[in-house]
Write a structure and sequence with these properties.
Layout lengths: L1 H22 L4 H7 L2 H11 L2 H18 L4 H13 L12 H4 L8 H12 L15 H16 L4 H19 L3 H11 L4 H21 L2
Protein name: Chaperone protein TorD
Family: Belongs to the TorD/DmsD family. TorD subfamily.
Main location: cytoplasm
């Protein structure tokens, strides 16, 4: 049981890490960590899984390439803004509504559904992150919290119910638009750092789905 709890904690940490990556521009302190030994070890561990080896290698190459930029922090911040804070015509906006909504506008049905889902599990959005509920960072943060909530259940039946909730969330709220988002990142991210991150996220979500299915 302790191994299962520890494994779930690792899953949650990955979702939270990716949430922070898509929530805001990386700071100089963040980049110092990205080029440090702990991140190298962390990514090496992820890359030991066959399904993640190629996307991890691509992301590690993007980190190395980023380190060679003349003003890395400012240039990556510009990439972030150009992709995620721009317009649908020029960027890859990180909102589910832009990909599976019916209006092509923000706060479409996916945002409403996400807001209702968070309320049903009594998981609050961080007040300092004032974005529609279907922002990728919010959805990934929610998934991390859902995993930890599963660890806190007292019975096998309760834990299984939370695992099924996680599977449903991946299928209906993440994998229904992440492939489209990743494709847009690959088309529009000329440097490639965030495209590599999106590709790694998509691969991880697909792998996590297999875990939840017991495959």
């Amino acid at each position: 049981m302790q191994e299962f709890i520890a494994f779930n904690e690792q899953r949650a940490e990955i979702y939270w890490w990716m949430s922070s990556l898509f929530a805001r521009e990386l700071s100089d302190a963040d980049l110092h960590e990205y080029h440090g030994g702990e991140m190298y070890t962390f990514l090496s561990g992820l890359g030991m899984t066959e399904e993640l080896k190629a996307p991890v290698d691509t992301f590690r190459a993007a980190i190395k390439k980023s380190h060679a930029r003349s003003d890395e922090q400012l240039e990556l911040a510009a990439d972030f803004c150009g992709l995620f804070l721009s317009t649908p015509k020029s960027g890859a906006l990180p909102y589910a509504s832009m990909y599976v909504g019916k209006t092509g506008l923000l706060n479409d049905k996916p945002a409403q559904e996400m807001h209702e889902l968070m309320a049903s599990f009594d998981i609050a959005q961080r007040k300092e992150f004032n974005e529609p509920a279907d922002h990728l960072a919010i959805e990934l943060d929610f998934m991390g919290n859902l995993i930890i909530m599963g660890n806190q259940q007292q019975t096998e039946e309760q834990r299984e119910a939370l695992m099924q909730s996680q599977l449903s969330f991946i299928n209906t709220m993440l994998l229904n638009w992440l492939p489209l988002f990743t494709k847009e990142c690959q088309l529009r991210d000329q440097f490639g750092f965030y495209a590599a991150a999106a590709n790694l996220l998509l691969a991880f979500c697909m792998l996590d789905k297999k875990f939840l299915l017991g495959e």
